[in-house]
Specification:
about 950 residues; nine-stranded mixed beta sheet; about 10% helix; mainly beta; disordered N terminus
Length: about 950
């Protein structure tokens, strides 16, 4: 699992002790079924419902348990506190429990705890679907369809097809204990002459094993006896059949072995998936050269042309094929890679379906099409938009990067094996439908929601469109992908919108660069300050353009925000140097307006270096259908011809500013960028770039002295480039960044960490480094650092009574003493147990507010304290100190009673009482 950063944590160190007074119990496997108790560390002394802290020392964990199973999906489940990422927890086998190791503590608290996945909240009102806080908007009406394009790549081709499978010896991949299967299904054309292009599919992260004729489904690997592997790799047969009919050899590979093991991978399995893809490509290259060595299904197919490869990846499979394209051009570090042979293939493009991009490291010089499902209930923030936005200015800019927004599509239905009624294993619609709060856009049966077959047909069509453009080189397919406002009729009735960067877009106005803005504001895609952020955290709905990364704040990832209450006031964007639009036919702008809005109108004007100004024309931008549960703040591409500028005599070689003047009465918009545009798809040639990979070094703290360690960084490849690095302070959680020029063999990216040794207990400390390409560079492993392991034992504890026999109205008190001081706050915790003799204190014998704070329950109806499963006591021993008091206030009543007692016993590592551990006992006497 990823361990939590040292931020916002005053973790309750639940001391597990054995013996009458002190000692330590042995750690045992954590239980995922015991009752959850609110232990400690929120402002009021308790964690929110469903949360707790267990374990001791370096094994301490922050645990959240859902009231229902959380489906195994592609988005990372993340723990956040106070608006910051704590870390990525490890899921338990029950599908409900998630555990995150707590490295360290600070003076902060675990306040504002949230569980997020793909931007959606999982712990709101017990809703694991992410629908918490949503509301039902008015029904959305669908606009008229776009005009058809010149061609329709969704139509089947002339070839009949043949289907078969192959299974090879499993492979070992770095960091994965279990071998990973080499299994695939092949669909190929019959009778196609010569060598044929190869299309390879990689599915995403899903359940791996199921029990036939039951609802039992797990993430195990290998699959236990009595269960079968979930055949996710067979979920794209319709897509394969369409491509095969058009002359492509297609193969869809299985990755269950990675899905079951990637929870512990720092990159969520991206490098492993790349290794698996390239293992298969290497086999295909060998079979193409020596057909007699191929499996029967491959021998029966036309030879594959490995100089024409299209990679298609779904969800985490999308991030995997992106990394495979990168690794094929810029080799990864050998120690991290699971393929070490030659690259005997050329990847012409990628198709990424609802993809993740945790590293935010797209390959700028390999063309891509990213399908964004408008009703994605898994990767809900549609972070795959970064495969488009994240390529701007990074390299040559000639590769087309297209975003294809499919209204009404969910995440799962692009794969038939993830689709209810079509899958062999149990499957579900990932967009949760609450019958009592139906979503106006995405609930089944709404005007905008697609059926499974409609969605899959649209996906097949646009996969074939990418193949037609990237592999076949048919430029007529471009208008279906690049924001030209044309549709492929085979995808009907799906409404599909596109925008793009790259190809024949020339110089432009990029908010990410050195620009000044008047009449509007430069806003940041990711910033905790609402005045700086493009969209505030409390905004209704999300934007794919502003998807969160691993840092709380990003520098240089921006847009231009416009807001107006009357027409006529321009927002002007001025780059540091004039831009050249010479040779362009139009100015292409990507503009966001709020969902469900219509009729936003903007006049577009240019001014040259001599001060000549021309209004190019007026654009209209309508919002996408959206609700609080969708990522519908998505940019529409609009174009205005440059003919007016030519007529006005503007010097298009030296344009100094762009102005947008609202003509609607009031409104809001965001300019993502504007480019000089002309038709055509130039050849994408990969630039020689340096590649940066960050590693992780784990060291022992030691008993004395100060040692300096450097974060492992490898820079390979050729040339020099710029990256931005972010270093997280483990004590405060604050990120600092700087721009760094890197080159192979250089030491420009040098981050050192000082480790001070001592003999006092502390938590592990994780120093994190993140890196992102800015210009002329490519990033592989984007996250690493130095982890300092505590090597000192947890102090043992003793308990002595201070006031353990008191009259009603007084407080019972005990003193907890540590054997040695620790460098972090320690919180010994005790759970209530039945008394062994005599009457027991009840809920009406203690202070009501104290009871609510420590149990989360009400005092009535009256019941013995031992019947309150959530009642616990804890002490807070500050860092550097050795003792603290625990007290329990009682109240006076008018009832004559015998002496009543209470008993609390220490927790073990699982939050269960230790039978022979320290106890707190007290007796309350009648005040009369």
């Amino acid at each position: 699992m990823f361990r939590a950063r040292r931020i916002w944590v005053t973790a309750a160190a639940v001391l597990a002790v054995a013996g009458g007074v002190s000692g330590s119990a042995q750690a045992v496997p954590p239980s995922d079924t015991e009752p959850f108790t609110a232990t400690a560390t929120a402002d009021d002394g308790t964690l929110p419902p469903g949360w707790r802290i267990t374990g001791k020392g370096s094994a301490q964990q922050l645990v959240w348990r859902s009231d229902r199973q959380v489906p195994m999906g592609d988005a990372r489940v993340e723990f956040h506190a106070g608006g910051r990422l704590l870390g990525v927890p490890r899921p338990a086998k029950d599908g409900r429990t998630f555990r995150l190791g707590l490295d360290a503590a600070s003076s902060g608290k675990l306040t504002g705890l949230q569980v997020l996945a793909g931007g959606r909240r999982l712990d709101a009102a017990g809703d694991t679907s992410g629908s918490g806080g949503g509301h039902s908007e008015a029904a959305v009406q669908r606009p008229a369809p776009l005009p058809p394009g010149a061609i329709d790549p969704g139509k089947p081709g002339a070839y009949r097809t043949t289907t078969g499978e192959y299974t090879l010896n499993s492979v070992r991949l770095p960091g994965f204990p279990q071998p990973v299967e080499m299994q695939a299904v092949v669909v190929a054309p019959k009778g196609a002459p010569g060598k044929r292009p190869l299309a390879l599919f990689l599915h995403g992260r899903h359940y791996t094993c199921y029990t036939p004729n039951t609802d039992n489904i797990t993430g195990d690997w290998p699959c236990p006896t009595g269960t079968k592997p979930v055949p996710s790799y067979r979920g794209y047969l319709r897509d394969q059949q369409l491509l095969a009919s058009q002359g492509y050899v297609t193969v869809s590979i299985s990755a269950n072995g990675i899905n079951a093991q990637d929870a512990d991978a720092e990159d969520a399995g991206a490098q492993a998936r790349s290794s698996l893809v390239r293992q298969h490509l290497a086999r295909w290259a060998g079979w193409s050269a020596h057909p007699d060595t191929a499996p029967p299904v491959v021998r029966d197919a036309p030879r594959a042309d490995l100089s024409k490869v299209l990679l298609i990846g779904h969800s985490r499979g999308g991030e995997g094929v992106n990394r495979a394209a990168m690794d094929s051009l810029y080799p990864p570090p050998a120690t991290q890679d699971g393929y070490h042979g030659p690259v005997r293939w050329k990847i012409r493009g990628t198709v990424l379906i609802g993809p993740t991009i945790f590293g935010q490291n797209p390959v700028a010089d390999v063309p891509s099409v990213t399908l964004l499902p408008g009703c994605d209930g898994d990767v809900s923030d549609l972070q795959g938009e970064v495969y488009v936005d994240g390529t701007r200015g990074v390299s040559r800019g000639t590769a087309l990067h297209s975003a294809v927004y499919v209204e009404g599509a969910d995440h799962n239905f692009f794969n038939t094996e993830w689709t209810p009624g079509q899958a062999q294993a149990p499957a579900e619609d990932d967009f949760y439908n609450d019958p009592d709060q139906r979503d106006a856009v995405c609930s089944p049966g709404t005007a905008t929601r697609l059926t499974a077959d409609q969605q899959h047909k649209a996906g097949s069509t646009y996969i074939a469109t990418a193949a037609r453009l990237f592999v076949a080189g048919d430029d007529r397919a471009r208008e279906l992908l690049d924001g030209s406002g044309r549709r492929a009729p085979s995808a009907d009735p799906a409404r599909v919108l596109t925008h793009a960067v790259g190809a024949n877009r020339g110089a432009g106005f990029l908010p990410d660069g050195q620009v000044t803005v008047s009449g509007g504001r430069l806003c940041s895609a990711v910033d905790p300050d609402p005045a700086t952020a493009c969209l505030a955290d409390n905004n209704t709905g999300l934007s794919p353009h502003f998807a969160q990364w691993d840092t709380s704040k990003e520098i240089g990832r921006r847009a231009v925000a416009l807001r107006w209450s009357a027409a006529g006031t321009p927002t002007t964007v001025r780059p540091a140097k004039p831009v050249s639009l010479s040779g362009a036919k139009s100015l292409a702008l990507r503009v966001i307006v709020p969902p469900n809005t219509t009729g936003t109108q903007l006049d577009v004007s240019l001014t040259d270096a001599a001060g000549h100004r021309a209004t190019l024309g007026r654009v209209r931008v309508d919002g996408l259908p959206g609700t609080g549960r969708t990522a519908s703040y998505w940019a529409r591409e609009v174009r205005v011809p440059l003919t007016a500028a030519t007529r006005a005599g503007l010097d298009l070689r030296h344009v100094k500013s762009l102005a947008l003047t609202p003509r609607s009465r009031s409104g809001q918009a965001w300019l993502m960028d504007a480019w000089g545009w002309r038709p055509g798809t130039p050849a994408a040639v990969a630039a020689p770039l340096p590649r940066i990979d960050i590693g992780r070094l784990t060291v022992k703290e030691g008993d004395s002295g100060v040692k300096t360690y450097r974060v492992p960084v490898q820079v390979s490849g050729r040339g020099s480039g710029q990256v931005r690095i972010y270093v997280t302070d483990p004590a405060t959680g604050q990120d600092t960044s700087r721009l760094v020029t890197v080159r192979p063999g250089g030491h420009d990216l040098d981050v050192s960490v000082e480790v001070k040794g001592n003999t006092r207990f502390d938590y592990d400390v994780q120093h994190d480094l993140f890196v992102k390409a800015v210009h002329g560079a490519v990033v592989g492993a984007h996250h690493g650092g130095v982890t300092t392991e505590n090597d000192d034992p947890m102090p043992t504890l003793t308990v002595t009574p201070v006031a353990d026999r008191v009259a009603e109205g007084q407080s019972l008190k005990w003193k907890v003493t540590l054997s040695t001081p620790a460098d972090v706050e320690i919180n010994p915790t005790f759970v209530v147990q039945p008394v062994t003799t005599g009457p027991e204190l009840s809920t009406l014998d203690v202070d009501p507010q104290w009871f609510r704070d420590n149990s989360g329950e009400e005092t009535t109806p009256e019941r013995p304290l031992s019947k309150v499963l959530s009642l616990a006591l804890w002490a807070t021993v500050p860092a550097g100190q050795t003792s603290a008091e625990i007290s329990m206030p009682t109240i006076t009543d008018q009832v004559a009673e015998q002496p009543e007692s209470v008993l609390f016993r220490a927790f073990d590592n699982n939050g269960d009482p230790v039978s022979d551990g320290p106890v707190l006992t007290g007796t309350v006497l009648d005040a009369s």
